[in-house]
Design goal:
The protein has 31 helices and 21 strands.
């Protein structure tokens, strides 16, 4: 996946600057709220903490607050850039902590390279935090800094550059050795790179059973031997008392190669010289020590991992650090010790062997992902990571005696973790990943619009779809040049003479469908000059798999050609529009938001069935509320009665959780429902699927939430069409268009799959 310099800069600078913000976690709307939040109410927790300092975890955010601290001396692979230039990375780390484990972060950039001064600074601010994540510190200072802080502070501290990669690659190693049927104490390991991460990996491998004498460590000068002068204590640990040999010589008969150096430093010849079932972890980024394709071509029996997301077995620190800190914080661990790291290793390794959840299979468009050469560690989007790693780390902390607040109810803790996880952006990630596994041909009917063109470019660049652009070729190519959107794809102008034969073919199809509705062949041929008709015909004839349109047109105008050319799915009486609203409490599904003006009770029931089917496709169980201004007959009126009657049609499906008519606040608040209507199907758990009585209420509601709550949305998702067609909201952002493209591709995958079966 390619990103331009300007795109990266825009991402960080547009809107609110940076990537993270601090938001209040308590009500602040009244004078009473403010008097409790600050003066005079704030004095009470201050006095309680003074009497018992441990109460700081009860009355403040300390227990869920991690400091990501750097001096910028080893930023990514860019070197010593200084503290200011490290801040985007630290903000990014904070973002990952939050979205994967619901841990709050302050990023701290320290203008100090002296070890003593740096340690003093961190110690001075440590009372603020429940844990400290050291980041982008150069070796060997990084070792000393971590060692001293761990000795002098009583909160979890981890240098992720060292231990994160070590933990994930160790989990991968255990499983790779099992697949290769090799014993850990006998394997020969070649390590290329001798920085903090490589040394930490080698140490952890030794903790797992690798013999030190079987480790050959290379740095930029070659094999590390005892004959070297000025070796620091960390390299001395792996110095071999023998003559120096080349990397090629060392690779002969080796079982494991671990690369944490730079791209393209090992060859196919070297890989071919390794032992049977060689294990190669080429973790340099963005270019691995050997390209994945070259390694696979060199050895059919290879077990390969990289640091990249576009190949199997990505060794990514995000599999570890959010959940390790989560477990450590939740038991108020005084440190992150070896036992906790090993517990994380084993939890990750064991998880990979279990049956992969269906949502992960679907995200990657696989029927049955399973443990093997191409799955030695879990996928980063696996929703089980938090509920497996965090408890394992927490238990190890308890067993090793460093937990100040042991967990007593593990079932309750598991529920708390799952609640923290939510589904918010993970739903979008899953849909996108599924699309990438089998990209489809998507027609963009308004390709001479910048937003559409940019979305098409991103869809191709990210491997989501194969774009087909409709519009004036010269104008589209000029726009590509002007906006530096350099990508190869098919561009079609339906009006060109070269498309006459195809227009005639498509016109005959439309004529056959509409001839008894007053349409002549001449009129059909004329209509095929229009992009929405032409694009719909491409999908109908399987010249394309899906259509995206509507950004610059009235919704009804954009949808009409698709209805006439493609039509609705068999057994479906009407189409409907659904919006997916991505909130901090998970996704909510709104319908109908775009199509049906004032449906009757039976039509409401039909719309609900379409929505339920779509929600279930996303591996989410719908809990449906039929909304009105009335609660279960509290008020009369056309809409209330209509929704009440719609329920009667839907109750025939005994597997569906649905109730109504019900007011929106009750539908989303189980306490209210239990207080007044505990008989309701929604008393146990609130609704996630909201069905509106008419188009006005549905359309107004989702637009209000979009603007006022600033939630991310996907939509409108058009339901009930025979083939994938999605009509955008006027003014949709590039991101929203891209989300719809992902939906369209997964929709097309599903349609194609059904055809095969």
């Amino acid at each position: 996946m390619k990103t331009s310099k300007q795109e990266a800069l825009d991402y960080h600078s547009q809107g609110r600057k940076g990537k993270i913000e601090v938001i209040p976690s308590k009500p602040t709307s009244t004078q009473r709220d403010l008097s409790l939040a600050y003066s005079p109410g704030v004095a009470e927790p201050c006095l309680e903490i003074f009497k018992n300092p441990e109460d700081v975890y009860e009355y403040t955010a300390k227990g869920n607050l991690v400091a990501v601290i750097s001096n910028g001396t080893a930023v990514l692979g860019l070197g010593d850039l200084g503290p200011e230039a490290s801040k985007p990375v630290m903000e990014g780390k904070g973002l990952l902590f939050k979205i994967f484990a619901d841990i709050d972060v302050f990023d701290i950039e320290v203008d100090e390279t002296d070890v003593d001064a740096f340690v003093r600074t961190v110690k001075a601010i440590a009372p603020t935090f429940g844990g400290i994540n050291l980041e982008d510190l150069k070796a060997p200072e990084a070792f000393e800094i971590e060692k001293r802080l761990k000795a002098e502070l009583n909160i979890p501290i981890m240098h992720d550059d060292q231990h994160g990669t070590a933990i994930i690659s160790s989990a991968a190693l255990l499983n790779a050795l099992e697949i290769a049927e090799k014993k850990i104490e006998k394997v020969k390991v070649i390590v290329n790179g001798a920085g903090a991460s490589a040394i930490s990996c080698a140490k952890l491998y030794m903790s797992l059973g690798v013999k030190k004498n079987n480790i050959y460590m290379f740095d930029s000068k070659g094999l590390i031997t005892t004959k070297r002068e000025n070796l620091d204590e960390h390299k001395q640990l792996f110095a071999r008392n023998e003559a120096e040999i080349t990397l090629m010589d060392a690779m002969k008969g080796a079982d494991v190669f671990l690369g944490l150096s730079k791209g393209n430093v090992i060859s196919q010849k070297m890989v071919k010289a390794m032992a049977n079932n060689p294990i190669v972890f080429a973790l340099a980024n963005p270019d691995p020590e050997i390209p994945y394709a070259d390694a696979i071509a060199a050895r059919k029996d290879i077990i390969m991992a990289t640091g990249r997301s576009d190949h199997p077995n990505q060794v990514n620190n995000v599999l570890g650090f959010p959940f390790i800190f989560r477990g450590a914080l939740d038991v108020r661990a005084t440190c992150i010790n070896e036992e906790m790291k090993l517990a994380a290793v084993k939890a990750i390794a064991e998880l990979a062997k279990e049956t992969v959840p269906e949502e992960v299979n679907e995200a990657y468009s696989e029927r049955n992902l399973s443990f093997g050469r191409e799955l030695i560690i879990p996928k980063p989007i696996d929703p089980r990571l938090i509920s497996r790693i965090a408890p394992a780390v927490a238990k190890a902390a308890m067993d090793s005696g460093v937990a100040k607040a042991p967990i007593k109810d593990w079932e309750k803790y598991d529920l708390e973790l799952k609640k923290r996880l939510g589904l918010d952006n993970k739903l979008i990630k899953n849909i996108t990943q599924r699309a990438k596994k089998n990209p489809k041909k998507v027609v963009f009917a308004e390709a001479d619009n910048y937003k559409i063109l940019k979305a098409a470019y991103l869809a191709q660049d990210e491997g989501i779809a194969i774009p087909i652009l409709l519009g004036n070729k010269e104008r589209i190519h000029d726009m590509m040049k002007a906006y530096k959107l350099h990508f190869d794809c098919k561009v079609i102008d339906p009006r060109e003479q070269s498309e006459k034969a195809r227009r005639s073919k498509y016109a005959k199809i439309l004529f056959d469908k509409r001839k008894r509705r007053g349409l002549t062949l001449f009129e059909a041929e004329k209509l095929m000059h229009e992009r929405n008709y032409f694009g719909s015909a491409m999908v109908e004839t399987e010249d394309a798999d899906a259509l995206i349109s509507g950004l610059t047109r009235n919704y009804s105008t954009a949808i009409k050609p698709a209805l006439q050319v493609i039509g609705v799915e068999e057994g479906v009486s009407r189409i409907a529009g659904m919006y997916i609203m991505i909130t901090k409490d998970g996704p909510f599904f709104f319908a109908d938001t775009t199509v049906n003006v004032n449906p009757c009770a039976e039509e409401i029931a039909d719309i609900t069935k379409l929505v339920v089917r779509e929600v279930r496709k996303l591996n989410i169980e719908p809990r449906v509320a039929l909304l009105s201004y009335s609660n279960f007959g509290s008020n009369e009126g056309d809409d209330a009665v209509k929704m009440r009657n719609a329920l009667k049609y839907l109750q025939k499906d005994k597997n569906l959780i649905v109730d109504g008519e019900i007011q929106a606040n009750f539908a989303l608040n189980t306490e209210l429902v239990n207080d007044f209507f505990n008989f309701s199907e929604l008393a146990k758990k609130s609704a996630n699927t909201l069905i509106f009585p008419n188009l006005s209420s549905g359309n107004i509601s989702y637009k209000l939430i979009q603007e006022m709550a600033q939630v991310e949305s996907i939509g409108p998702v058009l339901l009930g069409m025979k083939k994938p067609v999605h009509v955008l909201q006027i003014g949709s952002s590039v991101r929203e268009i891209l989300n719809m493209v992902s939906i369209a591709v997964t929709d097309a995958q599903g349609k194609a799959f059904k055809c095969v079966e």
